[in-house]
Amino acid sequence: xxxxxxxxxxxxxxxxxxxxxxPEEPAAPEIPAPPAAPPAPVRPPMPAALEEAARMYAAGxxxxxxRRLESAIKNGEDLGDAAVRAWGCLFELLQVLGRRPAFDALxxxxxxxxxxxxxxxxPVVDGPHVASESSGGRAHVSLSGxxxxxxxxxxxxxxxxAATSAMVRMDLAKLEDADNNGATLLMRALAALKRAKxxxxxxxxxxxxxxxxxxxxxxxxxxxxMWLLLLELYQQAYRQDAFExxxxxxxxxxxxxxxxxxxxxxxxxxxxxxxxxxxxxxDEFVLRGQMLxxxxxxxxxxxxxLAGSEEFDIDAHNLVRIDAGSAAHLLDVLTRLHDSGKKLxxxxxxxxxxAYLETLxxxxxxxxxxxxx
Length: 373
Description:
Mean pLDDT: 82
Number of helices: 13
Low-confidence stretches: 11-19, 267-283
Oligomer: single chain
CATH topology of the largest domain: Transcription Regulator spoIIAA
Order of helices and strands: HHHHHEEHEHEHHHEHEHEHE
CATH class of the largest domain: Alpha Beta
CATH superfamily of the largest domain: STAS domain
Distance between the termini: 104 Å
InterPro entries: STAS_dom, STAS_dom_sf
Strand content: 15-25%
CATH architecture of the largest domain: 2-Layer Sandwich
Helix content: 40-55%
Structural class: alpha/beta
Protein name: Putative sulfate transporter/antisigma-factor antagonist STAS
Largest sheet: 4 strands, mixed
Radius of gyration: 34 Å
């Protein structure tokens, strides 16, 4: 045993080559790390006053939205880089509310403070009703909400457009209520258009007829203009039986001879928009008027419009307002398209609507281009 131990102790671990170390492998070349992606631009947070006012307007609270911005500006709230935007939103709200003197006073203050020209008063965007030109020599009027005395401004604009239009189309589907003042003004406008021999076409006349008929009581001598408008709508809807019944009730109520049923003249065929050189192109998608309670089906055509296009502009020049439900459906569609690699732009937005869409995250999936203030 001792000899074995001696043998172990006699082993020379220092003999060169007794334990040959493997040759050293050359060090692997260092692979440089990929350059860091530039950080995404960070949008400054929207001032609370502007965000609150945009949400109020979308919810139909124009007066509250105006007061919120007025308070922020008068009290010197920190609006940061969004100061001009906030003033622009206040200008738009004053137009919607028809407050021309306040608008003009604000314009003078704006010019002194920012040393630039203020926005100009534009009656085309007054209130919930919208009048605009369309292709084929037609004027288009969209009436929304309440048919009351507030319709006056859009009817004035309609008369101007009708001077160079052969046909005037009035869409009534978005009306929710009516009173005798609104009916009076609308009947005056219709009489003027007929004297000028303009063709008048109603979209969804039975919708407004249903609203009016529910408010009228035979035998009550009130709301005569609403009765006359009801008869006009029945005629436009080709409902002669309903017309005759309403005419008898009108005659009994007011003790006068009612209007007579008149066969409407043949309507000129509306030129298809796609065939007009100045009309919308087949791959356009337009947001216009008051988008209240829109459903997903109304935004489905975006898929067809984007077929074969990597970049796409959505025209919002005539978009007056969009509510939360409609915006949610639109955002769902745009998010899906953005995730599939499409580059989207919403152009021509009002300052107020652009601010509202930004609060909902639209800027993450589309470029928002507001009109210049």
